[in-house]
Design a protein that fits this description.
single chain; elongated
């Protein structure tokens, strides 16, 4: 809800590319589904768990991959439009750093809530008995960001150029 309000408030002053808006919409759907069921109990995750004979529901891993895949395009767009960075290696590196730091911060928030809540920590964290869950979450976020940049940077560059032409 906060992101929707922020995007609506900045729509005229700092409109994003259609690609960024579409990705944010898909990410919102992933988050809402995970929030509705809790990530460890999403039915789609159970279906994949059964189909692939996995030990746990991996829907939260999809969410963390998306946590990198989508925001990296928004971070990239902000960096291209509001900083002296051009396209290239530094833009990709810093875009990944932005989303990876946000992921790490989210893992800190999860930890702090678990410390405060105490008894319900396992349920809140959704680690499903995996002692490496936090590391997996951050790794998948970083992987999602890198895959997104590899797949979408050229298209994003075209949309950024179109937006710049339309604004001129």
């Amino acid at each position: 809800m906060i992101t929707a309000a922020l995007l609506a408030a900045t729509r005229r002053r700092f409109p994003l590319t259609p690609l960024a808006y579409r990705l944010v919409f898909v990410h919102a759907l992933i988050l809402m589904l995970g929030g509705h069921y809790t990530y460890a109990r999403v039915p789609l995750g159970f279906w994949v768990q059964d189909a692939l004979d996995l030990a746990r529901n991996h829907y939260d891993r999809v969410g963390h991959f998306a946590q990198g895949f989508v925001p990296v395009i928004v971070a990239r767009e902000v960096l291209v439009r509001a900083s002296p960075l051009g396209t290239g290696g530094w833009l990709a590196f810093l875009s990944v750093c932005v989303v990876l730091s946000a992921s790490a911060f989210y893992e800190f928030v999860e930890w702090w809530v678990a410390l405060i809540v105490g008894v319900g920590a396992e349920s809140f964290l959704g680690t499903q008995g995996d002692p490496w869950d936090t590391q997996w979450d951050m790794f998948l976020c970083m992987s999602g960001a890198i895959v997104s940049l590899a797949l979408l940077s050229r298209r994003h560059d075209r949309e950024l150029a179109e937006a710049a032409r339309a604004a001129a």
